[in-house]
Specification:
By secondary structure, the chain is α+β, with helices and mostly antiparallel strands. It folds into two domains: 27-142, Rieske [2Fe-2S] iron-sulphur domain (Rieske Iron-sulfur Protein, 3-layer Sandwich); 156-438, no CATH class. Helices cover 16% and strands 22% of the residues. It has helices at 4-11, 18-23, 169-176, 207-216, 333-338, 347-356, 374-391, 430-435; strands at residues 27-32, 44-48, 51-57, 63-67, 81-82, 87-88, 95-96, 102-104, 122-123, 125-128, 131-135, 160-165, 221-227, 230-238, 244-252, 256-258, 264-265, 268-273, 279-284, 410-415. The strands form four sheets. Strands 12, 13, 14, 15, 16, 17, 18, 19 and 20 form a nine-stranded antiparallel β-sheet that branches. The longest helix has 18 residues, at 374-391. It starts with a helix and ends in a 12-residue tail after the last helix.
């Protein structure tokens, strides 16, 4: 459990809070590029780390992210006119460029120089991987952009989505770092009838067999290794044939997760706080792995009774919510008795059901953690320690421009005798060298 003080430290992100100041030391997703697609398109409301902002793409295609309220009388610039390289307030016509400078003040006399003294809060932006990223911290601490692989991604391969959840960002992220819940929350009775396809042996199992392993051994053992970017950890299960199956996932400061997949994964899931009570779950592709999907065989989606979200997102890449607390996440009690463990058909809503039902911010003084919670405990400790260090004047972790952010990967495999899970997903992994060769760096002598 956490003390009430530590729970506040961990979850509160508004301006001036220790955790909020830590998060502001990183380039953070603000919106999808598709939400402000063309010059002079409609302004977009952005609620980010407890601040109300407005994004707009100006006539020359530059993306601005500015404070929502006009510094004159406070009207919302969301209602402003996006025209001629600036956002003009509808109240008195004051106009601001993407850097927050007032470039026109028509309600004042022509000879007035007052506009030169007025500025609007504005944050720098960087577009990469279908996401508009921003830096909201002190300028003197602005780090280079962290390239997880999107900077050189071909346009046709770019894919990014976001999904809203009504709970605290840490609470949402803890679900992604919990490898034991897949043996319970995401199960259905038909898993036992999936035929053995022969992949229960050292090497890479099919996706279908992997799901059988989750159900066969429902109390995984966890091991963790700290890394320069945060940590990676495995859930270790025994397969029906007696082999050692591992699912390795990664946590990267401050809210990135890379979840286990066969044979390895590089897709990031980010839990970005809109404020203390609301979170945007971003997902984005970092590169093309060609035919890597053949390793895991047929995806189990077609075999399961679950719904895996709408086949189409809206025009902006924002995934709509069909099931919420208002309709009890679509729970069906008969299916809970006879078909699925949770009674909730939509896969992602199973996660929302448990994380949102804890309340907007769970009171962690009431929890009782076990051995299956090691990764969650480690993540909390790392974040709280980092927030305290930044508050003491030290740098945030994992922001250095010389670090290899493309090397952050997850993995899943049945281990051979003597095989070390810590090598999985690294540049030394033969599967990485085969499918992700473009991101593997040649070692430099002495490095």
């Amino acid at each position: 459990m956490l003390s009430a003080q530590d729970n506040e430290l961990l979850t509160r992100v508004g301006p001036g809070t220790p955790m909020g100041e830590l998060l502001r030391r990183y380039w953070t997703p603000a919106l999808l590029v598709s939400e402000a697609p063309t010059p002079d398109s409609d302004p977009v409301r952005v609620r980010l780390i407890g601040e109300d902002l407005v994004a707009f793409r100006d006539t020359e295609g530059r993306l601005g992210l500015v404070g929502e309220n006009c510094p004159h009388r406070g009207a919302s610039l969301f209602f402003g006119r996006n025209e001629e390289c600036g956002l003009r307030c509808p109240y008195h016509g004051w106009k601001f460029d993407v850097d927050g400078r007032c470039v026109d003040m028509p309600s004042e006399p022509p000879q007035s120089v007052f506009k030169d003294k007025v500025t609007l809060k504005a944050y720098p932006t960087h577009e990469s991987g279908g996401i508009v990223w921003t830096y909201m911290g002190p300028e003197e601490h602005r780090p280079p952009f962290r390239d997880f692989g999107t900077e050189t991604l071909e346009r046709e391969l770019v894919s990014a989505t976001k999904l809203h959840t009504t709970c605290n960002w840490v609470q949402a992220m803890e679900g992604n770092l919990d490898t034991s819940h897949i043996s319970w929350l995401h199960q259905w009775d038909g898993v036992d009838q999936i035929p053995d396809d022969g992949s229960d042996k050292p090497g890479y199992p099919t996706n279908a067999m992997s799901w059988k392993f989750w159900r066969h051994d429902r109390a995984p053992r966890l091991e963790i290794e700290d890394t320069w970017y945060g940590f990676k950890y495995v859930g270790i299960r025994e397969t029906p044939a007696g082999h050692t199956h591992v699912r390795m996932s990664a946590f990267c400061y401050p809210y990135n997760t890379v979840i286990a997949t066969v044979p390895f994964g590089t897709q990031h899931g980010l839990f970005v706080p809109a404020d203390d009570h609301n979170t945007w779950r971003y997902s984005f592709t970092t590169r093309d792995h060609g035919d890597i999907a053949e390793v895991g065989g047929e995806n189990l989606f077609a075999l399961s009774p679950f719904e895996f979200g709408p086949s189409e997102v809206d025009r902006n890449g924002i995934i709509p919510r069909r099931y919420t607390a208002e309709n009890d996440y679509g729970i069906n009690r008969e299916e809970q008795r006879h078909l699925t463990y949770s009674g909730v058909r939509e896969f992602i809503s199973q996660d929302f059901m448990v994380t949102e039902s804890m309340g907007a911010i769970y009171d962690r003084t009431q929890e009782r953690l076990g051995t299956s919670d090691k990764a969650i405990i480690r993540m909390r400790r790392l974040l709280m320690a980092a927030a305290k260090k930044v508050a003491a004047g030290e740098p945030a972790p994992a922001v250095d421009g010389g670090l290899d952010y493309r090397s952050i990967r997850s993995a899943e495999k049945i281990l051979a005798e003597g095989e070390d899970w810590r090598e999985l997903g690294t540049d030394a992994d033969p599967m990485v060298q085969r499918y992700d060769a473009g991101s593997v760096r040649t070692p430099v002598a002495g490095s």
